[in-house]
Amino acid sequence: MAKRSKPQTQISENPSTSSKIPFRPQQIRKLSTTTTKLTVQISSDLPKTLKPLTSQSEITLALNHLRSSDPQLAALIDSYSPPTFDSDRPPFQSLARSILYQQLATKAAQSIHARFVSLCGGESSILPETLLSLSAQNLRQIGVSGRKASYLHDLAEKFSDGTLSDSAILEMDDESLLTMLTVVKGIGAWSVHMFMIFSLKRPDVLPVGDLGVRKGVKLLYGLKELPKPLEMEEVCEKWRPYRSIGSWYMWRYMEAKGVL
Fold first, then answer.
1. Number of Cβ within a 10 Å radius of residue 53
2. Best label site of 13, 101, 174, 257, fewest CB within 10 Å?
3. How do residues 41-98 score in pLDDT, each as one tens digit?
4. How far apart are CA 12 and CA 2, in angstroms?
5. What is the mean pLDDT of the chain?
6. Of 186, 208, 175, nearest to 17 (Cα)?
7. Nearest Cα residue to 63 out of 87, 86, 43, 80
């Protein structure tokens, strides 16, 4: 989703498929041991079906698990307020907002989004048919670039022709969401990860291409270089099945360090 209530600062989409970075030998051994222990912990201590992070009880369960599975993350959990996921927008509205926010500073994005809401006739009127009735020129007049206008129209067309729907999105698993939403022009893996975390409130999403999360992992665990996707998966395995919460703390950690 592009992007966000979410961490309030825009982070460029920068997924990478590079090979592994060099870890310190001791860290590799510790990660392997932790991952083995976590497999047992997940099967015995946590519910088999995880609920969205929509209630304080779910977030408390997640925090308790993360404290016990990762002492380094536990220190951050105790240093910052618990996470909140407040967006209640329907999927189509959230995705349209995500496109509008892409690659913009927060204040600029908020201003354009406010004009977009007004142009559509209010939040409740941000619908595929409304968007398709607006020309690229209409959108450019409120500050939307021609490229983003084409992305918004493609999103609306996918909903209009039945490729996507709010109800179908809510029922899809994470893998299906990534496959289906990246069919839309302008929506990449990073945007889908943000959408799953902050709009759908999915508990176990790891945005391996997010620069803020990668920097947080590098600093927290003392890595020599920014971890690539495969290393992110390995290092953050201990966060399962609440990697969304772990990622949220990486953003807070980097904000506190003045990085974001």
1. 23
2. 257
3. 444 466 667 788 988 899 999 999 999 999 999 999 999 999 988 778 999 999 999 9
4. 9
5. 85
6. 208
7. 80
pLDDT tens-digit map of 207-234: 999 999 999 999 999 999 999 999 999 9
**What does DSSP assign to residue 195?**
I
Residue 99: CB atoms within 10 Å? 25
Which pair of tokens denotes residue 72?
């380094």
pLDDT the model gives residue 122: 97
CA 252, 258, 260: angle at the middle one, nearest 5?
65
pLDDT band at 9 (very low <50, low <70, confident <90, very high): very low
Among residues 191, 100, 175, 201, the alpha carbon closest in space to that of 143 is found at 100
Closest by Cα among 235, 239, 169 to 1? 169
Tell me how far apart the alpha carbons of residues 226 and 219 are, in angstroms, rounded to a whole number: 9
**DSSP-assigned letter for residue 240:** T
